[in-house]
Amino acid sequence: MLQLTRAAQVPGLRTTSTLEALSAATQAGLLGVDEAGKLTAAWVLASRVRAATVLGTGREGASRVEVLPTDPREIRLVGRLLGLSAGSERDLEDIYRRTARHARRVVEHVFFDDAAPGRPTAPPAPAGGSPAGPRGSGRVHAGSAGVTGDSTGAARPRPPRRPRGAGPYPWS
């Protein structure tokens, strides 16, 4: 999402490499070092799990390699391919879920929190443009919590947030 919304201002985001884009976002101040570290760890783990699943189970179909195996033999095999010690392969699911949970928190923070303290709200606006560029993003980035704006910059009240757990997956 940062690549889509900020690549005009940050040339380093114009890449097909996820890890290079995370690095560029960190250097541009769009992500904190800790946030980038969590997203990088999640990307690397997910990539390794996917590769180990293909290698260890022979699965090739997209939907079948996107989920952890459920068969105990396959779990042991994938865990061992990832370097887990004998007998601790069952920890794979816990490791994966913990890493994904940390990455999800970062994504929720970056994309759904409004002007979090210590986070730059947006790169400087180009002369004559809106804060998010010529097309606008539908948000006012000047620290105006509780207010959204349209492409003309007119403010309107933001709908109330639903309490955590009251909404649909994935941000419920």
Can you give me a brief rundown of this structure?
The chain is 44% helix and 3% strand. The protein has 172 residues and is mostly helical. Among the domains are: 32-113; 125-161, no CATH class.
Features:
172 residues, mainly alpha, two-stranded antiparallel ribbon, 6 helices, 2 strands, 3% strand, elongated
Description:
It is a single chain. The chain has 172 residues and is mainly alpha-helical. Among the domains are: 32-113; 125-161, no CATH class. Helices cover 44% and strands 3% of the residues. The chain has six helices and two strands; from the N terminus they run H-H-H-H-H-H-E-E. It has helices at residues 2-6, 18-27, 33-57, 62-65, 72-81, 92-112; strands at residues 147-149, 155-157. Helix 3 crosses helix 5 (72-81).
Proportion of residues in helical segments: 40-55%
Report the order of strands and helices.
HHHHHHEE
Largest sheet: 2 strands, antiparallel
Strand order across the largest sheet: 1-2
DSSP summary, beta strand count: 2
State the secondary-structure class.
mainly alpha
| Count, helices | 6
Task: Describe the secondary-structure layout.
Elements: H1 2-6, H2 18-27, H3 33-57, H4 62-65, H5 72-81, H6 92-112, E1 147-149, E2 155-157
Antiparallel strand pairs: 1-2
Helix pairs in contact: 2-3, 3-5, 3-6
